[in-house]
User: Fold these one by one.
Assistant:
Number 1:
Amino acid sequence: MLNEAWKRRLIHIAHSGNGRDYNLKTKMEYPKTVLGQKIHQSKTMSYSFPWLYKIRGTVLQNEILAPYTSIQIGGPADVLIFPEDIHDLQTILKHKGSQPLFILGEGTNLLIGDQGIRGVVISLKNCFKEIKRPLFFRKKDGNRRAVIKAGAGVKMSYLTKNAARYSLTGIEHLVGIPGSLGGAIVMNAGAEGIETGQVLRNLTQITLDGEVQTLKREQLSFEYRKTIFPDGGGIIIEAEFELEEGKRIEIQNLMDRHLSRRSKTQPLTVPNSGSVFKNPEGDTAGRLIESIGLKGLSVGDAGVSIKHANFIINKGAATAQDVNCLIENIQSEVKKKTGIDLQTEIVYAGK
Ligand SMILES: Cc1cc2nc3c(=O)[nH]c(=O)nc-3n(C[C@H](O)[C@H](O)[C@H](O)COP(=O)(O)OP(=O)(O)OC[C@H]3O[C@@H](n4cnc5c(N)ncnc54)[C@H](O)[C@@H]3O)c2cc1C
């Protein structure tokens, strides 16, 4: 049994976060209970990031990023912040100084290095999750359309299903894309011939100077899996899409067909980060890789999926180095046998 003096000491250590055995991986999730007492830990714990105590959301230091990615790979972030709101974002931008910044969506198109990401990583997983009721209007041609507004942290699949509830057509082809709205805009994610940029009306972002800025579709340009921002881009917080009124049953049936096709053709039950390579002009990367017999090729625990040759799967303990090595092997084999240079679609982050 602990005597009262020891209990007081332990509770004091928990409050201050200065215990001798205090772990580097400091989770600032509040409150914690230590010996029956609620602890609101002191947030002054980093020399590099002395401003972290100002953040109202969750702050994790030296947090391994693998669990935040769909391929389950990636070393630690110096600081991973789950902002609570726009003020948190502005606080980060105001105080981060020269520290690098990386925005994490749902992590479904990323390869994060084994050494992790230096500086500040922001995840919008816990905020900007609202989808507003669509606002209907009639166009000159008599067709009813609607504007639907959603936060950047909303999953693209939720948004498409929500639009379908209101019989809105235009984004149903994107139902199987597993990332967030913010990630879909940055990547100009697309499927079945429809790209995010085609239906986007405008987006609101926080610029790196902390200003709230709304950009209309016309101010952006869209390429294959890439959106180009006039001033380099900031942190997208919400966006509006303009959709047309359609027939709910048809929209629903189409989404069901897309989802069932994906589950038959993509390795959805094993960790992966979607299509690794961009499709070359007039062909698909998957067909090319399969045609030269690379399905099943592995480096360590990273392997070319048997189900879809443009997917690299993590069979358990794959590292970013394994994936990189496999990517280089595929590129060099494809080049040797077909003369085509495969370009990567996945986003590399960190070391
Ligand atoms: C099984 C599977 C199937 C897939 N199918 C498709 C498909 O059919 N078509 C397709 O295009 N893609 C597909 N993808 C890839 C991926 O889902 C998309 O690219 C998706 O849009 C990425 O969104 P995300 O939230 O996961 O972004 P992340 O992967 O987390 O980030 C991607 C990029 O966006 C940036 N970013 C994310 N959020 C923000 C924000 N709020 N503000 C500023 N920058 C931000 C990140 O910094 C990074 O540069 C698939 C992936 C998987 C795993």
Number 2:
Amino acid sequence: MNNSLEFLCPFCNESHEIQVLNKPTQALINGMAVQYEETTYYCEKEQEFFVPKAILKNNLLAARDAYRMQNGLLTSQEIKDARNQYGLTQKEFALLLGWGEVTIQRYETKLIQDETFDQKIKNVKDNPKLALEELEKHKDKFENIIRYNEIKKIISSLIKTKSISYLNKQIIESYYIDFREKSELNGFKELDLEKVIDMISFFAMKSSRLYKVKLMKLLWYSDMLFFKKNKQSMSGLVYEHLPFGAVPLAHEEILKYASKCIDITSEEFDNGAIGYKITPKEYGNLKLESGEIEILTKVIEKLGKFGSKEISDYMHDEEAYKQTDDNDIIPYVFAEKIDGFNIS
Ligand SMILES: [Zn+2]
């Protein structure tokens, strides 16, 4: 997307409207070609391009982050997030990990971390218990004992809230341990749990009457249709054929894990049945891409108004369901047979 702003133009030596251009660019980093978006400024009067110093810095950061993403490394922002959840300064985070005090500052601004360092940050990011162990191990590096105790308190309280979520994640991953390799069972994608959470949040925000069983089917149709279009599933979820439809493996644990962004309340119907209603905790920003949002929107447009029973009946007519038996994994190849969603 391009736009414009008032800027002190170095060619005209005066402040005037400058075009801001974002264009896809390729760079070579550590011998690897990476794609990223580069920002350039343009003066129409002189018909000249230029890049202000601060923007140049952002461009370099964008290139390095593209490299990181391509290599499964944490981006500079993710490193910052890991640090911020514990309320640490860059120096404190580095000391906690037993590293030189400018290490984290470098990772957040310029240097690409190697895999060993990356793994250590990831461990500490996901598991505050490990953060506490690291902190205690490197206690002597902290000169200010009051601050040390403060940090210890923050991490300890996070252990209580995050450990449950961490354990849940471990359980989910253990269910998926045999489905790590890309195959037609996971739609040629390894499980992306954060994507699943975003998909659930999306449906919770868009649907005023969302119940558990219905959600499972919305997920299934989204993954299937995304696969049909892109030859890859959206989430990497593996779906089982159960009597009431297609259901992702570890769906109970996944719903528990999603409790950071949705509420599930039980609701009694007139006939005495109990439904589990799903509502969003907050309308946050989701990390979904436009191609993903397109599919999710089509699914909610088509199935959003269906009740749980109607959507079950609808699904039972799918070849994917008719040609598999109870407890079978439903392969994504059946996606070809799904029609009626108007997806080009
Ligand atoms: Zn100018």
Number 3:
Amino acid sequence: MRIDVSTIKDTKGASVEVQLSEAMGSLSAAGRELTCSGPVDVRAKVTNTGHGAMLVQGRARASLEAACDRCLAPFDLDVVSKFEGHYWKGREDGRPARAYGGDGADGGDELEYHGDFVDIGPEVRENLALAIPIRLVCSEECRGLCPSCGKNLNEGPCDCPAPPGDVRLAGLLDLCRPGRAGDRD
Ligand SMILES: [Zn+2]
Ligand SMILES: [Zn+2]
């Protein structure tokens, strides 16, 4: 996922806005691999901030093939992520420019571009993956599966006896009952 910066790379303060749409295969987050159901859409603005640095600010959107954690049904998960990064002009021979990362011991966060193109693919991928929720649910109202018979309760109630919810609720109400009047200080 590359942005052509040839028109702004020699002018400090110049910027260019782009829209990209590119297939990304799949994203992995929290131990699961989710396949993109379409191309990833990106809108980004690149600004030449001087000294060969490019500031990239953008927004990425992906649609992923997910399965609900409650009812197991497949659904489309929309993920939107903002990202921002400074890209420094790398060496023409493509080797890493160690100078930017100090002694090189902890310079892993330095981003680089080479020639006329800034490749934002890795950062878009990383930020989208971070935006994937830990719990995947098809809808906040999803009723899930019956723990006894396994029926999808979104399709209607099952024939299992109702859980003794009112008994537990009575216990909770007992706990919440205003009892002792606490003195403040
Ligand atoms: Zn569900
Ligand atoms: Zn049931």
